[in-house]
Amino acid sequence: MESCRRKRFTDLLQTAGRFAAGPEIVVLFVASGLNAWLMLYKAWLMREFVTGQNLGRWKEWFKALAKFPFAILASALLSQTTKYVQARVSMLWRKTATSSLLRSYFSNMNYYKLLHHGSVRIEDVDVRICSDVRSGCDALTGVLISGLSGVMMASFSTWALYQRRGLSAVFLPYIYSFIIVPLSYRLTSPDWSVSRLVQKANAAYQQALTRVEQAGESVAMLRGDEFEKEVLNRRAADRILAEQTNWAAMARFEWFQHFISNPAMPGMWQSVASFGAAFIAMQAYGPGRPVLDPWQPNQAVVYEYGANISDFWQVFYAVRGASSFFTAVETYKRSKQNLSRVEQLQDAFATLESESNEAAPERFREGSCIAFDGVSIDTPTGTPLLAGLSFKVEPGRHLVICGHNGAGKSSIFRCLAGLWPIAKGTITCPNAHASGLHGDVYYLPQRPVNILGTLSDQLTYPHQVPGGLPIDELRRWLSYVGMADFVDRAEENGTLGADWASRLSLSEQQRLGIARVLYRRPQFAILDECTSAVSKDMEHWLFQAANELGISCVTICHRPALLEHHHQMLRLTGRLAEDGLGWELVDLPSNVPEAKPPAGSHAEAHARLEELQKAGGCRKAFAVDKSAAVHAPTVRSHQCHLDVVQRRYPSALQRIAASLQLGQLHHSSKLCAALLLVCMLLRPQGAWEVFRTIGGSVSVAMCNDGIGLCAELLTNIVYAAGLCCLDRLAEALSRQLSLQVWSELATAMHSKALKGAAFHKVDVENPMQRISEAKLLLEEIKGQLQYTGGVTIQMLYCLPLLVRGGGLLPALQLVLLFATHFLVRTYWMPNIKAMTAETSQIEDQLQVMQSRIRYLAEPIAFSNGGEAERQRIEEHFQRLCDHRLNSLKQEFTYNFLTEFFLLYDNLPIWFHRLISFNFAWRNVPIGGASPASAVQNYLYDRTISMSLVGVQALTAFPAELAKMDARATRLLELQQALDAASRVQPRIESDGVDIAVENLTLSTPERTVLAEGLTFEVKRSEAILITGPNGAGKTALARVLLGLWPAGNGVKLSVPPSFSIVPQRPYLAPGCLGDQVTYPKRFGKDDEVNAWKALEKVGLLYLLQRGDRGVKGAEGSEVAGVAEGWLFQCDWEDQLSGGEQQRLALSRVLFHRPCFAVLDECTSMVAADVEERLYQTVVCSEITPVTMSQRLFLPQLHSQELRLGVDSPSKWSLAQLRNGNS
Asked: Is the confidence at residue 470, as pLDDT, over 60?
């Protein structure tokens, strides 16, 4: 393991030893060389323009004028091809790297090991694969093209300069490029690892959004909006702090980089090129050339000025190319932080693979039975659970495993599936060398995995039948668990392919899991509390069907009622310290016959099951099957929200402005905006002063004034440094403004989304992930504000000077460029808004698909569903790649035409020469140009260039506006949906002390009536038991009482404010142990006594001692002792068993002590004797239970029973219980 070579990101970009996108990289090499040559050729044509127009050599001038469009056409085509190929290389590299990582992630159950018991633990794998790989590939391709172009440009320029001026001319620019620039980088290079803080904070924020979205109903039921809002706001604040820390660390480096290597006009490169050309001209001054007077016209000025232009461009490209290379090196160092996070993941995979190869001797044996022989089971942290475990399950026999929470029931099968290593003993089972339990041994957990896909995929998981099962065949299998109508309902609603985990209740998911077992017909079925949410009739039917199909069951349970279906019981006693074993094996006095021989085919299985159905084995199990999707009723359709947004805000600018107003702007934000505007208004004058000193260098060089040239150089450096400071101040203000607006916007969206759990009620896809897009929108607005806004102000500053020097012709040419772009945009601009919106949607879906693996790692590992999950993620990622590549093709023609007509280096520079010729014709003296008029010509050229760059920015703005509009529209659509959801308020009276329901029609979102005219009353201390089969409406009634579902018109509904729920699925919030007890309230020191009592009542006081095992406290210190035990922070869902989670959830009710508490089958994973004690504790705490159950449960604790799903017109009945409290 020590000798393993450290993995490199570039390893991911190779297939069969070759880099992906090889042909494209060759194209980049060729295109970079041609681009560099064309740049020099255009510089030569510029010289021909100047000398021809000033000497009156019209033939040469017209020849240059004719050649230039062809040169810029080739340049624009090459440039756009380079950009297209660069984006394609980045996408192909990302595809190759992502596929390689996914293969490693899903092989050998690494997705489970990284989260649970591997020697390395990485929790944000989803962010690293989705975000860091994308950023790394974009950065690497950028570095590749920058470095390649820089080397090519510097090489060609240096050779041309050497040919014209000699070796001494080459020496000057390279002093700057190879000494000053590298030295400044070395002296100011920051600690690049600081940028990891930003990536870590971003990953934490993304995961927090995903977690809230996936736990939507639990958050809504528990009224945890304030708690979750605080968590999200804290994650957002951490992200802001990380970015500010990163800026502070980078400040000095970024200032020098901007000053030394900024290519923007006027930048240091232009100054170096201009003064370098001037020094070269002075060095070339010979005795035969007359000394020029600054104000005296002379024909020699034309030659000198033309030579100066050639020298300028050759020095400029030499400096720019060499500096680009060093800038690429520094950019690589910056991107290395993203790459290092991916490399850490690669190293983790290598470590896990090495550990697997160096594992203990093979402890699995192939056999026809399941047998443990002297197996000792320890947790991954080394805590012993069982010793010398020995039992055997022959085909046809059934074994039940019982024991208290945390005794090791599920741990036995983690060892059987290979998820946990065993240090002692041997295990015999069919397919002993296969990973997971999905073949002859099949594992069915309490929460079956529901993959993103079709209903057929849910049944056949982890395998996928190409094209899916035929509808009739699918309906036939689902009919065995009473879900046949789901096929028709899915067809009607167009949801054959959907996120079934969010559409199905826990009961429906368990029935679908049972259908999966029947479909697969394994030799052994491991049933881990898989019937906790179904009726006893369905439970009984499962064991009947298993016997009929020849399936031997190994069942984990708490309830003695299941013993009648088994031949043996393995009881986990928890007395490892006393007897050295912790288990005992007992034969049961059962009359259960052994299972029949296995069914040999699907046809035989159908025949047996249908015969069993005819015998009446499942009539009661399927008595009620009217449940519907569990998600809340949608308020309005997606298209309706979009129509409202577009009708309310007709233009893109209005939508962007409206999105910025989603948060309340504070005075500090307005002050930042005002200061930023002042900086942008001051910049044109500062730029003009820099240009003036550069123009002065031309004049003093022609006059051979060395002292004057040095003076101009010093003045230039002072002005350039001041301009750089102004630019950095503007950058700091724009960053701060962007962060402040994002903070205010995110805080407002968190509040709006979580208030009343509105995000859970909308039909907008991935609502919480959309909030994260606000940061991208603000980054784009910031970039456009600085670039487009800045150059537009410069254009307006120069426009009067442009008209004064050239008349109306320059203004008309600017109008012509705008008209040209209008035609290009009208006929060739693709629907960039739609493409950007779809890209964002696919990226969000990919993030959610990756994130769900974190929450379903164990059941996926048990089912060996890693390969199925990988295939679906790769299919979705392929969709993203296809969409992105198709978008690049659609944008190519538009981008090429825009670049040809509007990029300053192309056709606008041709217009530049025409405008410059017009100026020279109007202003150059008849006797020839003087050095002073050459300066005037230079400054007018800069006026033209700044005006044309402004036109370029304005004409490129519509495409960028469309991208920003797409993100703004998605945010406004979310806001509209949230507003619509918040307007639908439940009609619940909260001024009473009792629960009263009168004339309620209980129905599903699809308007299937579950109970009609429902009327009952629950008084304090008179508990009610609500019973009924699955789908009868028990949880639906709880949603109505909690205000998650509307009650309808004509209903009287009174629920006191002191009303809480313990749902079927325990929700453990991010935070310390104290937070778990006090949720949705934050744990405070004053809560310690009551929290202690609550934990004591549910038997979980031992959790306070877990700090001694190395659990980190809130501040990262080792926690020891009870006082600090409340501050434990860990992933509680991974650390606690299902029963412990349920008891911890119940402790919240005992802590808050509401008047009424809905207990929605919240003790299904708790032993029966403990379950009764917990209910008595609730009653003794003066909490009136509203108990949801499928059967008559603890009648002595309840006063009345509300039965749902009965065979009557109203579908409900109410009865008094004799033993109830009155």
From this structure: yes
pLDDT in tens, 738-774: 999 999 999 999 999 998 888 888 878 788 888 988 9
Q: What does the alpha-carbon distance between residue 913 and residue 892 come to, in Å, rounded to a whole number?
A: 28
Cβ neighbours of residue 395 closer than 8 Å, sequence gap 6 or more: 368, 369, 523, 524, 550, 552, 595
DSSP per-residue letters across 1055-1108: --SSEEEE-SS----SSBHHHHHHTTSPP-GGGHHHHHHHHHHTT-GGGGGGGG
Per DSSP bridges, beta strands 370-378 and 384-393 are: antiparallel
Dist CA 700 CA 35 (whole Å): 34
| Residue 529: φ, ψ to 5° | 55, 35
**Do residues 741 and 660 lie in contact, with contact meaning Cβ atoms separated by under 8 Å?**
yes
For residue 738, give the nearest of 804, 708, 783, 796 by alpha carbon: 783
- Exposed, middle or buried: residue 1030 (CB in 10 Å: 0-12, 13-18, 19+)? buried
1075: buried, middle or exposed (CB in 10 Å: 19+, 13-18, 0-12)? Answer: buried
Residue whose C-alpha is closest to residue 438's, from 362, 356, 523: 523
Quick check: 409 and 445 in contact, CB under 8 A? no
438 has which bridge partners?
Answer: 442
Beta carbons of 210 and 847 less than 8 angstroms apart: yes
* Apex 85 CA angle, 80 and 88, nearest 5: 130
Residue 632 pLDDT greater than 50, yes or no: no
Q: Is the peptide bond before 1080 cis (omega within 30 degrees of 0)?
A: yes
Cα dist. 978→136, 233, 483, 764, 972 in Å? 35, 18, 33, 9, 10
Q: Are 1027 and 1203 in contact (CB under 8 A)?
A: yes
Q: What is the signed CA dihedral for 517, 518, 520, 521, rounded to 10 degrees?
A: 100
Cα distance between residue 759 and residue 981, in whole Å: 8
The predicted-structure confidence for 889-905, as pLDDT tens digits, reads as follows 998 988 888 888 888 87
CB pairs under 8 A, 24+ apart, for 281-286? 281/307, 281/308, 281/311, 281/701, 281/702, 282/701, 282/704, 282/706, 282/709, 283/168, 283/169, 284/165, 285/704
Provide the 3-class DSSP secondary structure of residue 140.
Answer: helix
d(CA 1039, CA 848): 26
Query: Which secondary-structure segment (H or E) carries 1026?
Result: strand 1024-1027
Phi, psi at residue 233, to the nearest 5°? -65, -35
What distance in Å separates the CA atoms of residue 425 and residue 417, rounded to the nearest whole number? 15
- Collapsing DSSP to helix, strand or coil, 1138 comes out as helix
* Phi, then psi, of 422 in degrees rounded to 5: -120, 135
Q: How many helices (H) and strands (E) does the chain have?
A: 40, 23
User: Rounded to the nearest 5°, which phi and psi values hold at 769?
Assistant: -65, -30
Task: Look at residue 300 in the predicted model and tell me its pLDDT.
Answer: 55
Helix (H) / strand (E) element for 1189: namely strand 1184-1189
What is the Cα gyration radius of the chain?
Answer: 37
SS3 438: strand
Sequence-ordered alpha helix ranges (H) in 755-807: 767-806
Residues 6+ apart with CB under 8 A from 654: none
Q: What CA–CA distance (Å, rounded) separates 1075 from 1061?
A: 17
